[in-house]
């Protein structure tokens, strides 16, 4: 694989390195027995260059002729006269993975577009045959028992048909790096929204035709402005993705303005939500450094409390429950994904494997991830002390903190209650969840490095003089049942 599974050779098969279709059916069966639903990745923007469709497109066979984005060279007329001349790309578009987004194919005598690596040619989704093929893929896997999809890189689905050169960003002087042009012609084109709504309608019609009572789930990955992502939701009469991933917190920088940044992200997202839409929060993913590596190990329960106390859907990246760290001990020969991590932060130039290493279940060989001699990527050397089984035995561990915060989400207050936020300093951020005739919960977080005293009655009204601690992080020195004064006398909150 060129891009660890994002270069699909056959959209209707299981790669033998992962098993068989029989294994897949067993997975669905066992998940259903546990009242779990399976959501799988679907990459509709491109295929592998080894895909049979691409090979037929090169040969211009039948309907496959225009399956992909083929374009003539800028100097096509000269090439027809003198084949020794170097073909010039149609425009200045750049690939996410470096270099031109166009690669010349000598057999077809045209360029093909690839917004990612040259081994990942882009489909032409304006071709109705391609869109029909994507719908066939959706139906195929739903027939196999899949309950929904995460549609990958949907902001790249379409490009401007006029092939205009992309302009430089302010302050940039040349066009050699992906971060330098403003990608107004290659990302977030207007057709994306209609396509998302069309795919969701197809999925809903499928579930209705099969008398499936649970709605199919559609999640979409796109690094786009909030006003664009809100359109992914659709509306009550024409619904779209239930989870257009909110990736703003993933990109939140580590600086003195972190509290302000977090509050702005939360307020902007909640203010833009369409009626009946549900918010979602993503703080770690497969393209960015883990929280414990970015902000420090002591920050893990802070972000756990934040994401699990917010209203809506919380998306957990495996390992964040225990505070897994990037495996910075990988040697060059151990890195499988050599492509750059441009997604989310175009300036990043590091392999993404550091945050993709195996889940650390216990202190046995390969952290209990596999019984083979080697795992797909090396396990972080800290697995012998940072693992699930070890943390289960420690009441104040990240694992148990995550578990207790998750239990709190089952309360009516956190499921249906109001949210109030208090951005009172560069260090202290507070959430209050309340619901009429139910208990209220206050989450107080210290993002700074100094001890802070917080007088809650100075910040919010109608509080009792004394509150009880539901949960405290290991570094807070508070245990469940401890009392805290909301006024200046007694024992005010200290973090």
Automatic annotation (TrEMBL):
Residues 2-356 form the Glycosyl hydrolase family 13 catalytic domain. Keywords: Glycoprotein, Glycosidase, Hydrolase. The keyword Nucleotidyltransferase does not apply. It catalyses: Hydrolysis of terminal, non-reducing (1->4)-linked alpha-D-glucose residues with release of alpha-D-glucose. Its EC number is 3.2.1.20. GO terms for molecular function: alpha-1,4-glucosidase activity. It holds the Pfam family Alpha-amylase. GO terms for biological process: carbohydrate metabolic process. Belongs to the glycosyl hydrolase 13 family. It comes from Acyrthosiphon pisum. This is alpha-glucosidase. Transmembrane segments: none annotated. InterPro entries: GH (IPR017853), GH13_cat_dom (IPR006047), O16G_dom_2 (IPR045857).
């Amino acid at each position: 694989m060129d891009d660890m599974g994002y270069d699909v050779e056959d959209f209707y098969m299981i790669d033998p390195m992962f098993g068989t279709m029989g294994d897949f059916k067993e997975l669905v069966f066992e998940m259903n027995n546990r009242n779990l639903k399976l959501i799988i990745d679907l990459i509709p923007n491109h295929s592998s260059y080894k895909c049979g469709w691409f090979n037929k497109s090169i040969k211009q066979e039948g309907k496959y002729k225009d399956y992909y984005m083929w374009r003539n060279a800028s100097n096509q007329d000269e090439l027809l006269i003198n084949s020794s001349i170097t073909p010039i790309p149609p425009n200045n578009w750049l690939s996410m993975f470096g270099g031109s987004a166009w690669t010349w194919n000598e057999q077809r005598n045209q360029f093909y577009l690839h917004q990612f690596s040259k081994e990942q040619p882009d489909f032409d989704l304006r071709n109705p045959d391609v869109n029909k093929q994507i719908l066939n893929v959706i139906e195929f896997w739903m027939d196999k028992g899949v309950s929904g999809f995460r549609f990958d890189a949907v902001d790249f689905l379409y490009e401007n048909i006029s092939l205009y050169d992309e302009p430089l960003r302010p302050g940039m002087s040349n066009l050699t790096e992906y971060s330098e042009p403003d990608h107004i012609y290659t990302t977030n084109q207007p057709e994306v929204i209609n396509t998302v709504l069309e795919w969701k309608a197809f999925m809903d019609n499928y579930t209705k035709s099969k008398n499936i009572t649970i709605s199919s789930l559609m999640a979409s990955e796109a690094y786009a402005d909030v006003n664009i992502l809100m359109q992914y939701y659709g509306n009550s009469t024409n619904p779209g993705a239930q989870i257009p991933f909110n990736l703003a917190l993933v990109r939140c920088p580590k600086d003195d303005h972190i509290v302000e940044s977090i509050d702005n992200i939360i307020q902007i997202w909640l203010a833009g939500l369409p009626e009946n839409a549900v918010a979602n929060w993503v703080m770690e993913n497969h393209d960015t450094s883990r929280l414990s590596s970015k902000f420090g190990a002591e920050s893990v329960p802070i972000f756990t409390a934040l994401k699990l106390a917010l209203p809506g859907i919380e998306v957990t990246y495996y390992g964040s429950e225990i505070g897994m760290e990037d495996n910075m001990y990988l040697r060059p020969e151990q890195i499988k994904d050599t492509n750059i991590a441009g997604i989310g932060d175009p300036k990043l130039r590091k392999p993404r494997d550091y945050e993709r290493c195996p889940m650390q279940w216990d202190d046995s060989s390969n952290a209990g991830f596999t019984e083979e001699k080697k795992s797909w990527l090396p396990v972080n050397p800290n697995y012998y002390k940072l693992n699930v089984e070890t943390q289960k035995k420690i009441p104040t561990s990240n694992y148990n903190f995550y578990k207790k915060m998750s239990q709190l989400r089952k309360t009516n207050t956190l499921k249906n209650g109001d949210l109030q936020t208090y951005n009172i300093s560069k260090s202290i951020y507070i959430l209050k969840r309340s619901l009429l005739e139910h208990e209220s919960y206050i989450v107080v977080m210290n993002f700074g490095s100094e001890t802070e005293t917080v007088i809650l009655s100075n910040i919010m009204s109608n509080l009792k003089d004394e509150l009880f601690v539901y949960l405290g992080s290991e570094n807070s020195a508070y245990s469940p049942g401890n009392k805290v004064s909301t006024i200046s006398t007694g024992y005010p909150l200290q973090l």
